[in-house]
Amino acid sequence: SQQGEEDPQALSIQEGENATMNCSYKTSINNLQWYRQNSGRGLVHLILIRSNEREKHSGRLRVTLDTSKKSSSLLITASRAADTASYFCATGYNQGGKLIFGQGTELSVKP
Amino acid sequence: DGGITQSPKYLFRKEGQNVTLSCEQNLNHDAMYWYRQDPGQGLRLIYYSQIVNDFQKGDIAEGYSVSREKKESFPLTVTSAQKNPTAFYLCASTPGQGASQPQHFGDGTRLSIL
């Protein structure tokens, strides 16, 4: 069963604005990952944050993890039209090699 | 360049037919995964393999079969028992076992029913 739930399902912003996507999950995790998917393509890994970390940065991306609230957020700063894509969170556990993916947030950045 | 190659990009299945989707990687990764993605949905795990000659069922394995005879190859067969096969199928790999590593994805195969 899918554990990650993302919100919003769709987000439309203007170029230059910041975009924030949220992910919630139900049970304790080992790590949480964010992926990007352009239309009709495979997923591309963006960032991995471990359960003992609270925040990570990569370029214009900032990810936070709050294990007490079982939630994570992905912030994309100064968005560009090329950031238009679907974004997925995925949770990993201590046992087994599986990731559980959320249903994604569809981001549209208008020029 | 290292990566994952999925073929074909588009595939059509007739009623009662089995079809096989190819997934090849030259990343020397141990683990490989097959996912199904329906429109507007996230990914659901069909099968995964953490080592050659071994594989495990994921959440939606019914109607699918796999083999892992070589490290670089993990083909997926969609059997006639899968009554709703229309979807986007994605293959992925990781260097080792466990869920603590980023997954590398191919560009998918879109399967439709004729």
Task: Tell me about this structure.
The complex is a heterodimer of chains A (111) and B (114). By secondary structure, chain A is mostly beta strands. Chain A has no helices and 11 strands. In chain A, the strands form 2 sheets. In chain A, strands 2, 4, 5, 9, 10 and 11 form a 6-stranded mixed β-sheet that branches. In chain A, strands 1-3-8-7-6 form a 5-stranded antiparallel β-sheet, with no helix packed on it. The model of chain A has no long low-confidence stretch (mean pLDDT 93). Chain B is mainly β and 114 residues long. Chain B has no helices and 11 strands. In chain B, strands 2, 4, 5, 6, 9, 10 and 11 form a 7-stranded mixed β-sheet that branches. In chain B, strands 1-3-8-7 form a 4-stranded antiparallel β-sheet, with no helix packed on it. Chain B is globular. Chain B starts with a strand and ends with a strand. The mean pLDDT of chain B is 94. The chains are: A mainly beta (111), B mainly beta (114). The interface between A and B is medium-sized, with 27 and 30 residues.
Task: Provide key terms for this protein.
heterodimer, A: 111 residues, mainly beta, globular, B: 11 strands
Fold blueprint:
The complex is a heterodimer of chains A (111) and B (114).
Chain A: E1 5-7, E2 10-14, E3 19-24, E4 31-37, E5 43-50, E6 55-58, E7 61-66, E8 71-76, E9 85-92, E10 99-101, E11 105-110
Parallel strand pairs in A: 2-11
Antiparallel strand pairs in A: 1-3, 3-8, 4-5, 4-9, 6-7, 7-8, 9-10, 9-11
Chain B: E1 4-7, E2 10-13, E3 19-25, E4 31-37, E5 43-51, E6 54-57, E7 64-66, E8 76-78, E9 87-94, E10 104-105, E11 109-113
Parallel strand pairs in B: 2-11
Antiparallel strand pairs in B: 1-3, 3-8, 4-5, 4-9, 5-6, 7-8, 9-10, 9-11
